[in-house]
Structures are given as structure tokens and as C-alpha cells.
Design a protein that fits this description.
Length: about 240
């Protein structure tokens, strides 16, 4: 039941985000200029560039819905046929629908983390549109940090697949190498999430930038760890 709840929680959150946009629709002018003062340590706002409020209120929920549907379609037989064309040299198990059954709960958690991250950005945009920039910066930091911790905590339980993780040729070919690389990658994500949350609490203007840099650093750490493990691991025959 927990897995089922996790699987269908994202669309519920998307509906709630859309409902929040509808609730504030009348409070937002027809044309808006998104002000990012307080969200970043430097000013990138361009007040002279206006956009319809519909874009600001509904684009992220729509994109999130499409992305969630793509994640849900990934384990299907049709998607696996596409995966075999994209990863021609990967073992057949990597592009098999049955492979997702081995880490279904982990996959659902990662999908939930991605959806929470996008909807967190949406919540921050709503706060900015309602002229609460300080709240927007804190929302971004808290959601980004929490999503990184959530995804990093379950990343070591991923199995070789074509959708999520460090999908290098060697990682996909060698489950032992995959597990070792993703233990390091997951730990880096957890540390990044904690750091992002801490910075967001102390200095909200630097929270988003810290999170972005921490994600990049986590990817670098993960790929470096994967490369080093590959050098120490005999190539499977």
C-alpha cells in the first residue's frame, strides 16, 4: 500500500498546486514581471519584460504533469523498446520492464522527489507573485534541500536502469560498480540537501545558489567515484 500511495501522490500534489494557482488568480495582475529579489544573491529581475499571468501560474504544474507521466511510462513495454534503441550495448536486463520491479519503491520515491522539487519552485513563484520574496527564497531552499535528502537517501537502492542514476556504460554493465558508485552519489546528495537547507535558514538569498552548486558537485563526485571504481573493477567478460 505504501508504494501505491507514493506512486499516486505526485498527481495529487500537482492538482493541489494547480488549485493554489486558481485560488490566487484574481490577486495576480494580467501581466506580471517575476521579481527574484531575495531569491538570488544578485539581481536578475527584468521588470520591463512582462508575461501573461497564466504562464507564471500554470506552466510549472503542466510541465510537472508531463514529466510525471513520462516517468510512469518508462517501465512500460513500449518505453523499453525505445530504451533498447538508445542503449544498444547495455545488458538486456537494464532495458527490461521487470528490472523496475526490483526497485519499484525506490523509483517511486525518486519520482516523488523530482515532483516535489518542481512544485517547490512553483510555490516560490506564487510567493514572489504575491510579493513575499523572503518567503519565496526560504521555500526554494527548504524544498530543494529536502528533495535532495529524500532522493539521496534512496539512491543507493537503485538498480541499473535507463531512467535514473549515473548511466555510464560501465555502470550499466556491472551491478557491483553501479551499487558502489550510487552509494557515494547518494551520500553526496544527502550532504548537499543538508547544506542547502542550512544555508537557506541562515542566508535565504544564497540557498538556491548553494543548492545548484551542490547538485553539480554531487554529480562530479558521483562520476569521479564511478570512474575510480571502474579502474579498480575488472571488466566483466
Amino acid at each position: 500500500m505504501a508504494s501505491v500511495d507514493r506512486r499516486w501522490l505526485p498527481p495529487v500534489l500537482i492538482v493541489l498546486a494547480t488549485a493554489a494557482s486558481l485560488a490566487v488568480y484574481g490577486s495576480v495582475p494580467p501581466l506580471v514581471a517575476l521579481q527574484l529579489d531575495g531569491v538570488l544573491p544578485f539581481d536578475v529581475s527584468e521588470p520591463e519584460r512582462l508575461a501573461p499571468r497564466e504562464w507564471a501560474l500554470f506552466v510549472i504544474p503542466a510541465v510537472t504533469l508531463v514529466l510525471w507521466a513520462a516517468f510512469r511510462a518508462a517501465p512500460t513495454a513500449g518505453a523499453q523498446r525505445m530504451a533498447r534503441r538508445l542503449f544498444r550495448n547495455a545488458p538486456e536486463a537494464v532495458t527490461s520492464s521487470a528490472q523496475f520491479d526490483r526497485f519499484g519503491k525506490t523509483y517511486d520515491t525518486i519520482v516523488l522527489g523530482v515532483v516535489l522539487l518542481l512544485l517547490g519552485f512553483h510555490a516560490a513563484i506564487l510567493a514572489a507573485l504575491l510579493e513575499y520574496p523572503a518567503m519565496a527564497s526560504r521555500i526554494l531552499s527548504m524544498v530543494l534541500g529536502g528533495s535532495l535528502v529524500l532522493m539521496g537517501n534512496v539512491t543507493p537502492r537503485l538498480r541499473p536502469n535507463w531512467v535514473a542514476g549515473l548511466r555510464t556504460k560501465r555502470n550499466l554493465e556491472d551491478p557491483r560498480l553501479w551499487r558502489a558508485a550510487h552509494r557515494t552519489f547518494g551520500a553526496a546528495f544527502v550532504v548537499s540537501g543538508i547544506l542547502t537547507t542550512a544555508v537557506g535558514l541562515v542566508a535565504p538569498r544564497y540557498g538556491l545558489m548553494t543548492g545548484i552548486l551542490a547538485i553539480v558537485a554531487s554529480l562530479v563526485v558521483g562520476f569521479v567515484a564511478s570512474g575510480r571504481r571502474a579502474l579498480d573493477t575488472p571488466h566483466p567478460l
